[in-house]
Amino acid sequence: MRSLSRASALCKSSCFLTPSSSLALPPTTRFRFNSFESTSQSRSNRHRMAAAADTPPTDGAAAPSPSSSSAASAIDFLSLCHQLKTTKRAGWVKRDVRDPESIADHMYRMGLMGLILPDIPGINRDKCVKMAIVHDIAEAIVGDITPSDGVPKEEKSRKEAEALDHMCKLLGGGSRAEEIAQLWKEYEDNSSPEAKMVKDFDKVEMILQALEYENEQGKDLEEFFQSTAGKFQTDVGKAWALEIASRRKGK
Q1: Choosing a second label site near 45 at 20 to 30 A (CA), which of 2, 163, 205, 211?
Q2: Per-residue pLDDT, 148
Q3: How far is 6 from 217, CA to CA, in rounded Å?
Q4: Per the record, which residues fall in region Disordered (predicted)?
Q5: Tens digits of per-residue pLDDT, 86-129?
Q6: What are phi and psi of 102, to 5 degrees?
């Protein structure tokens, strides 16, 4: 009887136990343009999501999707890339072009160039498309640094490499981040047939845009054509540039 009473007392006391208040999580830090402050969610939140993904269901409910733990990183990365849509290409801004294109506009048409590229032995078209949409991605953080800014090439590369590393970490690492980093490095080093092709896309897109601004706004943008003269590395790049020059001469 005495044991039963004691057990009853313990049961009653346990019924009034309340869980301690939840630990407040620090607020999500938002990324600030031109800084390396992360926009990721709090560590504890991420760990909790990852743990939930690994915990098997106990009551017949569906387990959380494994991809849910990376969703926050993906949206953080994509939100940072918004800067590419809103940052205007500095060369046009400095020449007082009205409503100049953004960095993303420039990369998009380069991606289309890869899409319509003829089949060429030794050239991977899909890789060209990917490289085109990656090659200026670090400018989401450092902005569009032009030769007239007076920044040494080595310093520009260092700043962009640091920015790219930050973006890959923001994405959460893994195979996709590694692919972006590899494509960017290959382009910077001009170390593959695809990099040489995309380097030509970069120049072709610029002079085509210059021609369009000349036609639309009555500008003289000769310096952009001069800056690319004799610098094309591929037959496609040379042919496309020649076609643009021919149209400019005949206007």
Answers
A1: 163
A2: 86
A3: 92
A4: 36-68
A5: 999 999 999 999 999 999 999 999 999 999 999 999 999 999 99
A6: -90, 170
